[in-house]
TrEMBL record:
GO molecular function, one term: polygalacturonase activity
Keyword annotations of the record: Glycosidase, Hydrolase, Membrane, Transmembrane, Transmembrane helix
TM spans (from-to): 21-40
Pfam families registered for this protein in UniProt: Glyco_hydro_28
Top-level taxon of origin: Eukaryota
GO term, biological process aspect, one: carbohydrate metabolic process
Entry coiled-coil feature ranges: none
Protein name in the entry: Pectate lyase superfamily protein domain-containing protein
Family, as annotated: Belongs to the glycosyl hydrolase 28 family.
Native species: Camellia sinensis
Amino acid sequence: MMEVKQQLLVCGAIMGGLSRPSWAFLLLMLTVIALLGVQITTNTVFPTWVGGGGSAEETPSSRRSCAGFFREGTRRKVVMSITDFGGVGDGRASNTAAFRRAIQHMQGFGERGGAQLNVPRGRWVTGSFNLTSNFTLFLQQGAIILGSQDPKEWPIIEPLPSYGRGRERMGGRHISLIHGDGLTDVIITGQNGTIDGQGKMWWDMWWNRTLKHTRGHLLELMNSSNVLISNLTFRNSPFWTIHPVYCSNVVIKNMTILAPLNAPNTDGIDPDSSINVCIEDCYIESGDDLVAVKSGWDQYGIAMARPSSNIIIRRVSGTTPTCSGVGIGSEMSGGISNVIVEDLHIRDSAAGMRIKTDKGRGGYISNITVNNISMERVKIPIRFSRGANDHPDEGWDPKAMPKVKGIFISNVISIDSLKAPLLEGIEGAPYEGICMRSVSILGLAPAAKWNCEFVLGFTHGVTPLPCPQLQSNRSSSWCSYS
Ligand SMILES: *[C@@H]1O[C@H](CO)[C@@H](O)[C@H](O)[C@H]1NC(C)=O
Ligand SMILES: *[C@@H]1O[C@H](CO)[C@@H](O)[C@H](O)[C@H]1NC(C)=O
Ligand SMILES: *[C@@H]1O[C@H](CO)[C@@H](O)[C@H](O)[C@H]1NC(C)=O
Ligand SMILES: *[C@@H]1O[C@H](CO)[C@@H](O)[C@H](O)[C@H]1NC(C)=O
Ligand SMILES: *[C@@H]1O[C@H](CO)[C@@H](O)[C@H](O)[C@H]1NC(C)=O
Ligand SMILES: *[C@@H]1O[C@H](CO)[C@@H](O)[C@H](O)[C@H]1NC(C)=O
Ligand SMILES: *[C@@H]1O[C@H](CO)[C@@H](O)[C@H](O)[C@H]1NC(C)=O
Ligand SMILES: *[C@@H]1O[C@H](CO)[C@@H](O)[C@H](O)[C@H]1NC(C)=O
Ligand SMILES: *[C@@H]1O[C@H](CO)[C@@H](O)[C@H](O)[C@H]1NC(C)=O
Ligand SMILES: *[C@@H]1O[C@H](CO)[C@@H](O)[C@H](O)[C@H]1NC(C)=O
């Protein structure tokens, strides 16, 4: 049973032959998108609020920003270096005690103007440590924080109440390398320093089935607000890389997130039961979804009822050969609404935009706006799916159907695609208000057809010809949301 579940957490098989996009290709893409963009202004059927209220359509992509999601405070009163706390950046000595001492010291400045901990050039090995409020962790140029290779330095903590157990194993879970709970005003930034989780040990334990507890994240913040994560490289997370859960006002900007393309479940960024989260200008390549919006798992997520809402994912690019550019779900039992996904470039991936849910999830996915996505060599550019019997325990409720309503997808171009949209809703709970316009899936075999089950909606200007379920001819208000 456990073995079956473990396999289900992997998105699929590994694909080879990856390369970076050429400038010529990008130019072609921009031209085609510009041409497609012209169509949009000539049609009035699409709801005016698509794209975030209309005004977004007139603002050039490069100028739209996460401003407003994070409130910058005053400069930190105290700035100290990890070396002030006995840190040694030689790539061997453990700095766990140094980081913990530093944070404890800096906690004392929370109400007295805040503090900043600098990490200078060097290789700083450490076990897990917690952050504090009114605090900046600053990685100077050449600074590399390395995750400890001793699992005991990643102690076990309680499972999240919205999951009821560890995501991979029953019971508690390993704490993240960098952790925070109940914080306000936290900045993690620097001059392109690196936080490297050295996750290989954990991936091996997963592959060889010796993992006893769910793997830890590289960075997890719980119950926290006003958070900025920027200008750094995160790599080799044991599990999902950045996990804000029960948080609000989180900005993740100008980050590079890397993991080997076959490293299991190394999602880039997973906003989970969080509101007002803005992710922009990130490059991500990993063995799982680049970004996945979540909100708890089956009966535990339903009981907790903490939605993810007002989420922006913008100017993200990258590759994930077995998973999706942006995933919504599959854990979505607290509800997910008001998500904007725009200006993405996804290449060499299994899926581009994917909505995942299942019987037993309950909750809802609504008002998801996806606009201006370019893809190359993405097997299934647009995919909705209905899960694979992935439940926390026997206590899930087969009658808890998720409600999926109001998915607006526009200005998508995908070249060298393998499949037309594959849209599988749930019997007895069809996905409604699925609206697509100016969607071109190119490079398909002539016989390639849309594959739709239990979905209802409307399309305009899509190639190839959509499935009959999305040729519905209702009134123009069909695509508006109520
Ligand atoms: C953080 O700083 C703000 C403003 O100075 C202060 O009101 C608040 O109490 C501080 N929070 C903590 C947890 O120290
Ligand atoms: C960090 O916080 C977690 C819970 O939020 C706690 O279990 C753990 O003991 C803390 N670690 C340290 C070193 O304070
Ligand atoms: C964080 O939120 C969870 C879920 O609401 C709760 O169980 C936990 O006690 C909270 N932690 C703190 C420090 O408030
Ligand atoms: C992005 O971060 C890099 C360092 O990682 C920095 O050099 C660059 O200036 C940043 N770009 C912007 C637009 O802030
Ligand atoms: C940041 O550092 C990583 C390697 O650690 C490098 O791949 C990347 O190009 C750097 N980014 C910038 C903007 O300097
Ligand atoms: C599984 O992988 C871990 C981490 O690399 C290693 O320590 C352990 O010896 C391996 N166990 C088996 C049975 O292969
Ligand atoms: C990123 O780094 C650049 C260059 O140092 C700086 O101008 C910018 O303010 C930083 N951005 C954030 C969000 O930290
Ligand atoms: C849909 O989401 C967008 C973007 O988050 C928001 O501006 C709009 O108000 C939402 N519409 C409804 C009806 O909730
Ligand atoms: C579409 O997204 C690309 C990034 O993939 C961006 O360069 C371009 O400006 C966006 N187009 C519009 C009209 O915003
Ligand atoms: C469906 O749409 C076509 C073209 O827009 C229109 O001619 C036709 O009357 C519509 N049918 C129904 C049943 O509304």
